[in-house]
Request: fold
Amino acid sequence: MRAAAPGADIQLLATRAELEERAAEAEVIGGAIGPAALARASRLRWLHSWIAGVDGLLFPELIVSPVIVTNVRGNGAVPLAEHALWMMLTLNRQAPRWLDNQRAARWHRYFDAGELQGLTVGIVGLGLAGQDLALKCKAFHMRVLGLRRHPAPTPHVDLVLGPDRLPELLAQSDFVVVTAPRTPETRGALDVAAFRAMKPTAHYICVSRGGIADDAALLRALQEGWIAGAGLDAHAQEPLPPDSPFWTLPNVVVTPHNAASSRAVRQRGIDIFVENLRRYAAGQPLLNVVDKLLGY
Reply:
């Protein structure tokens, strides 16, 4: 960081409380601050988020302020896509059966495991993670549908649809995978009608942000057999409470919103910030600028 901006006074702080206390001194902040700190930060020009999802950062005062917001969009695309594919394989091949049999030292060979080949995956959100997942799904000989705000031909996606065609994507997909950010437009988009539109043999997977699916509707879909199962890394309430029924449903795989936790992800995030710091010091346009009104 110091090499990228040799003339800058760079302060590394240990806690968010320290960051909030020092906000009034800063022209650039890497981290999250609240409305009170923003009100004191009269020198602030650029706020950088160390995570890709900024829905929890964009409070009204920040949205209307002139402060530029950037994020680390793309740093977790590869592990998010890998995690989604792992969940697809786990659910489709009924992997928990093998693990249960191994723990019981039980030689039980006679059950059918599925294949991804020939199945259709519908990807809600064709950002970098969604595009990487599409490529990986093609390696498994799958048909790929994609949903994005502005439909346009996308590599490795057989059909790109706009938000108004979500029911079509849901009805055709054997896996519905959410890689979209949580925004006012996407929050609660998957409701009772959406899960009713899915095949009873289909699975729902979320690796980006919880709250895009309505939890009550998703729970009913899983308990009443509207869909076959789910893989949930991102949850509407986090941490997921110990008494949440999602923990114990036999047709659900739960992970604690850490699909994108790897050293490579952290390094890519640092690299993005350092490059932007170099650009800021040089008066050049920044990368990964967030549209504060759209929320990503």
Summary: The domain at 16-74+262-282 is CATH 3.40.50.720 (Rossmann fold).
